[in-house]
Amino acid sequence: MGTWYVDATNGRDRNSGRSPAKAWKTLRRARRQALHAGDALLLRRGDSWAESLRLRGSGRPGRPITVAAYGSGPRPRLAPRGVTVVENEGPVSWWRLARLELCGAEPWAPFAREGGRAAGIAIHQASPSEGLSIEDCVVHDVSGPGIAFHAGASDGTVFRGWTVTGCEVYHAATGITAGGPWPPGPNPWQYHEKFAVRDCRVHDIATDGIVLSHCRDGVIERCTAYRSGIGRTRRTPVGIWFFQALRCVIRLSESFDNHTAGGKADGGGFDLDGGAVDCAMLDNYSHDNDGAGYLVCSYDPVNAPCTGCLTRGNVSVNDGRANDYGAILFWQAHHCRTERNLCLTRISPGLKFTSETHGNVFADNTFVVDARSDVAVLKSSFPVDANTFRGNRWWRTGGRPRFELPGHRRLDLGGYAKLTDAKGERATNPGWEDRLGRELRRLEVARRASVG
Q1: Which has fewest Cβ within 10 Å: 55, 324, 346, 362?
Q2: Could you tell me how far CA 427 lies from the centroid of its own chain?
């Protein structure tokens, strides 16, 4: 195992690079050194390079190749002009990137129609890869995605066991993303397996905050996304979401102040979308978003159905600020469960359906409309009687809750229950002010307890 040092201030490329006193000066020189399992390339804190970094070769389990910082002061900064800052050359496995600052050398342009291609970190391959880790890095002011894993066409899993932990991404086209070939093929979930995005903060993003697809058995947890969707794009951005995902979970995360990127759709907090199967949104906090707090939907219910998903223990406050979205919105999703959520809206319904759905269960949720105006607590232009409603609580601070169903714009609780065969529903004040405080404290305690 070897360790090499790079010092942009005092280093010289004719040095050996084997100690801080004998450090190289440029990344160009460092790229000439082949790195092997257990090796480390350390960049001096407080220094800056207008150069990119290319990853070649692979480490081994327990012996990754590391690129990190040494010394004291700010993170070492890589700021090349117009190109991706860190990317792979050929297949890579078992690399660790830690405590780096990666950015573009030009001003960020959030209103570029589709964004650019110069990413902060971009790993793109079709050969199997394991054990890639990005830790405590700051990525900003890039025209493309901040951190991206993209799997090329393959007959099996490409990326297994990758992690992004404790990173901050801002001023990028997309925050953190993972994907694969399009169209995804007969096994759309195979490309990313057993991965994790943890304790990351993504904000001030042109389109999506954290969006992962072509994946299975992964988790996004304790992450925060805000002010995504602030650019201009034909896409429909969301703070944190999955699509084409199997058994993936979003939990203990917060998403707020997200927008529609100049469009008329989405801009919400969390989303399980097309091809999400047996996924879950658990114990999250969504608030003050243009779109839905929690979207359960499919862009293509025939080829990419959203089914078997769970939305439980979440809190939504003042979501649906635009386009008449709801705190929880269902569109072309079936056989999903929505239970024990607390939703407080002010200008939009607590629960909304924008298509005919079936087989879904809504149980023990609390929906409150805190408005003097006559906002419906539930709204649908399609029949909802093929779903099950049990033990939910409905309330409007300005008067009795109103339910809006096809042909019935002003149903009371009894009329709604009769049309839907709902059981155990209540229209009573849930003491939502105290309840909201308790729920937010519960989420904070659970978030802290989950660390480590």
Answers
A1: 324
A2: 35
